[in-house]
Structures are given as C-alpha cells and as structure tokens.
Amino acid sequence: MWTPVREALGRESVALDLPGHGGQPPLTQPVTLAEMADGVLARLPERSHLVGFSLGALVAQHIAAFHPERVETLTCVSSVCRRTEAESRAVEDRLAVAEADFAASTEASIERWYAGTTVPEALVEDTRRVLQANDPESFLHAYRVFARGDAAIAPELGHMGAPTLALTGELDPGSTPDMTRRLAEAIPGARALIVPGARHMLPVQDPQALVLALNEFIHDTEGAVA
Fold it and tell me: Which UniProt keywords apply (predicted)?
C-alpha cells in the first residue's frame, strides 16, 4: 500500500506493519490501542515524521500523545475522530458483519474504498487478495481497536504538541472530512486538508496528492524551526 508513496516521497522512509498485519504475527487475543502502539514504538526510528493511515493513524496519535519525544511531526491519513453516536453504530454494524461473514465484509470494504474511482482493477484486486488472506481472528481483534480506538485517544488530543496534519478524501464514507476537521480542531495548531475526489485508500488512489501534502507540511515545519 505504501510503495507508491515511498517511491515518490524523495525522503528516507520506513513502512512498519501494524501488530497483526503484514509480517507481524497474527493477533491471537484481544488487544488495546496502547498495546498496538507499543508494538510499533519498539520498531520505530528514534525520532521521525510519523505518518499513520486509518487504524495506523490512531496508533500514531497514541504514540504522539504518550511518547512525544519520538515524534517530529504527526500526519494522520484517513483517520476517524470522536465518532458521533450514529458513526459509532455504523462501524459497530460493520464489525458485526465481519464477525458473521468475513467474505461479505471484504467485499463491502472494497466497495467503500474503491467504488467510482479510477484505481486500476489490478490494484483493486491486489487489495482484495490481501483482505481475503487475512487471519479472521487477528483481523477482528484489530478491527475492534479501529472501531473503538477513537474514544480511547480522544481525551489526549488536546494535550498533544507535535505539529500535526490531518487529511482525508473528500468522498471517504468512513473516515469522513468532518472527522478530519474534528481532529484538526482537537489537536492544538493542527491543520486539515481534504483531497478532492478521493475515497478511503488515499495512498493507493492518489499517492501524488499525499506526497505533495506530506512534503509541503514537513518543509513548512522545518522552516518554522529554522
């Protein structure tokens, strides 16, 4: 997922798998947002421009809140934030579908992420294969953190000090523009950016827009420090 972004970024970068994802061992028991953050922190460079996507954005927020010495800047891509009651019900409904019918959940995710986009079918199929290959138990443990993690981190947002960029796609139905604006309002000095025409999989659908935003943000921050 991060390959197009890393290739275009023009900076040294490291893509870390979240606990239960990629090359990390599957999750075999319930896990908290704090535990997932600790699992990333152990592999994180000493200090970095930290970028998190979706569930990874919640993990990144936790690291920025509790280990600020490790975070130069924070970028939250397609992040949820302080879900309303209706938004919480919607994600709990999606979790229930995943618990009852894993295959149906996969197809629903593909629809939410890619419907109406110009992402090549080969990339969409790559995403489908990754989802279908998930260990269902591990996936559900991680999804529960995604469904409820915004409530866990919400009380800490106002105390965070790292320069922060929050951005999402204009058409993202789950990590909505309203959530990105809420996040930017909650974190002191944070800025919000909405990418026109994009849905949830911003690093895949429009990596150039993400790279441009990242590099401008980091450059501005470095200039302010200088």
Answer: Hydrolase
Q: How far apart are CA 222 and CA 216, in angstroms?
A: 10
55 within 8 A of 18, measured Cβ to Cβ: yes
CB atoms within 10 A of CB 44: 18
The pLDDT profile of the chain, 226 residues, written as one tens digit per residue, is: 899 999 999 999 999 999 999 999 999 999 999 999 999 999 999 999 999 999 999 999 999 999 999 999 999 999 999 999 999 999 999 999 999 999 999 999 999 999 999 999 999 999 999 999 999 999 999 999 999 999 999 999 999 999 999 999 999 999 999 999 999 999 999 999 999 999 999 999 999 999 999 999 999 998 765 4
User: What's the whole-model pTM score?
Assistant: 0.96
Residue ranges of domains in the chain, CATH in brackets: 16-225 (3.40.50.1820)
Number of residues in the chain: 226
Q: How far is the first Cα of the chain from the last one, in angstroms, to the nearest whole number?
A: 33
